[in-house]
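thought: user wants a sequence for this fold. calling inverse folding tool.
action: design(structure=
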C-alpha cells in the first residue's frame, strides 16, 4: 500500500512539474502599444518594412545642418531616455546630430517576435533610412547595445562611418580559448552564472526563471548594488541625484512596460545564444582607414569581464582598444569620457590601437 501511495504522489508531482514546465515555456503575450485601453505611445515613431514601429528621439544639431550623424544604442533594462553623456560644447563644436531609439520590445517600440542578431542591425538601418540620415552614419553601442554594434559591423558594414562599443556585453559561449572563458565566467557571481547558463542552454525557461520569487536570480539582471564597484555606484548615485534635481529623472519601469519577456529575456537569449557570427573573425570595415572602430572597457567592470574584451581586441588589431584601470561599468559616465569616445569616433583622435592588449589566460 505504501508503494502504491508513493507512486501516486510521484505521479502527481511529475504531472505538476510537467504542467509548470509547459506553462513556463509559453511566452506571455506582449502588452499592445496604442491599443484602446492599452499602453499609451508618448514618442514619435517610424514604421518599418514588417509593420512594426520604432520610437526615437533626436538631439544635438538639426540633421540638415549636421556634419556627423550618430545613432546611439541603449543597454539592458534601459530606453532611449537614458541618452549618452556628450557635452553640448562638443556637440556644437563638431556639429553632431544624435539619434536615440528604443530597441524592439523596449519603451515605445513594438516587440519583434522574430527578433535576432540580424533584425537588430536591420532595425538600425531602416530607422536611419526612415529619418533620411544618408548613406552612412555612426553607431555607438553601450553595454547590451554593444552586441547590436557587433551585429551592425557584420550585417550592414557598408552603412557605417564608424562604431564605438562602450563596455559592450560579451557572450561566454563565443569561440574563446578555454583559459579566457574559465577566467571570465568564473569571476561572475554564481547566481549570474546560473541565469546566463539558462539563457544559453534552456532559453524557453528563462522568463519563468527571472519572474519566479522562490530562488535568487542574477544580481546583474536585477541591477543590484553588488553588481557594481564602489566607484560605479558613486558615479551612478550622483547621476541619479542630478536627474532628480533637474526634473529629468529616467523612468526605469518604462523599459519593461511591454513585459519582461519582450525586453530583458530576448536580450539575454540573443546575447548568450549561439551566434551566427564570430566577433573575433570580424573583417575590418575600414581597410583604408576611413573610419574608426573602438572598444572602451573598464578593468574593474563586474558586469562585463575584461578578459574577453582583451582577447577580442588582440584578435582584431584594427580595433582601437581603450582600457581604463580605475573604471567599472559606469566608464562612459566618468567625467569627460563620453566626449573622448565621441571625439575619437568622429575625428579618429586619441590613442592609437593597442597592438598587443594585456594578455589573458589561454
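)
observation: tool returned 362 residues.
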Amino acid at each position: 500500500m505504501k508503494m502504491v501511495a508513493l507512486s501516486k504522489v510521484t505521479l502527481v508531482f511529475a504531472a505538476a512539474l510537467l504542467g509548470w514546465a509547459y506553462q513556463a515555456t509559453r511566452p506571455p503575450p506582449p502588452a499592445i502599444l496604442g491599443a484602446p485601453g492599452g499602453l499609451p505611445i508618448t514618442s514619435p515613431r517610424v514604421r518599418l518594412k514588417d509593420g512594426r514601429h520604432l520610437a526615437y528621439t533626436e538631439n544635438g544639431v538639426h540633421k540638415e545642418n549636421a556634419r556627423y550623424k550618430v545613432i546611439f544604442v541603449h543597454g539592458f533594462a534601459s530606453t532611449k531616455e537614458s541618452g549618452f553623456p556628450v557635452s553640448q560644447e562638443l556637440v556644437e563644436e563638431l556639429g553632431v546630430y544624435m539619434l536615440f531609439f528604443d530597441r524592439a520590445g523596449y519603451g515605445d517600440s513594438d516587440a519583434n517576435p522574430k527578433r535576432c542578431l540580424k533584425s537588430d542591425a536591420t532595425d538600425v538601418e531602416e530607422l536611419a533610412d526612415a529619418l533620411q540620415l544618408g548613406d552612412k552614419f555612426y553607431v555607438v553601442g553601450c553595454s547590451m547595445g554593444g552586441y547590436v554594434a557587433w551585429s551592425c559591423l557584420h550585417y550592414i558594414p557598408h552603412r557605417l562611418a564608424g562604431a564605438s562599443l562602450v563596455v559592450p556585453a560579451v557572450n561566454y559561449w563565443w569561440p574563446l580559448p578555454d583559459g579566457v572563458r574559465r577566467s571570465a565566467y568564473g569571476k561572475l557571481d554564481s547566481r549570474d552564472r546560473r541565469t546566463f547558463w539558462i539563457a544559453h542552454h534552456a532559453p524557453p525557461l528563462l522568463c519563468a526563471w527571472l519572474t519566479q520569487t522562490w530562488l535568487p536570480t542574477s544580481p546583474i539582471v536585477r541591477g543590484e548594488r553588488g553588481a557594481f564597484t564602489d566607484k560605479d555606484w558613486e558615479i551612478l548615485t550622483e547621476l541619479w541625484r542630478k536627474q532628480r534635481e533637474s526634473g529629468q529623472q529616467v523612468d526605469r519601469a518604462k523599459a519593461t512596460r511591454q513585459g519582461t519577456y519582450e525586453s530583458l529575456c530576448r536580450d539575454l537569449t540573443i546575447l548568450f545564444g549561439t551566434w551566427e557570427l564570430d566577433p573575433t573573425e570580424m573583417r575590418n570595415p575600414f581597410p583604408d582607414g576611413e573610419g574608426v572602430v573602438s572598444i572602451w572597457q573598464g578593468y574593474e567592470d563586474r558586469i562585463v569581464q575584461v578578459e574577453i574584451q582583451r582577447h577580442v581586441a588582440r584578435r582584431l588589431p584594427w580595433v582601437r582598444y581603450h582600457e581604463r584601470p580605475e573604471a567599472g561599468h559606469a566608464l562612459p559616465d566618468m567625467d569627460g569620457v563620453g566626449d573622448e569616445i565621441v571625439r575619437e569616433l568622429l575625428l579618429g583622435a586619441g590613442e592609437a590601437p593597442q597592438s598587443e592588449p594585456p594578455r589573458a589566460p589561454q
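thought: summarizing for user.
answer: Here is the designed sequence. Confidence is low (pLDDT under 50) at residues 9-23, 352-356.
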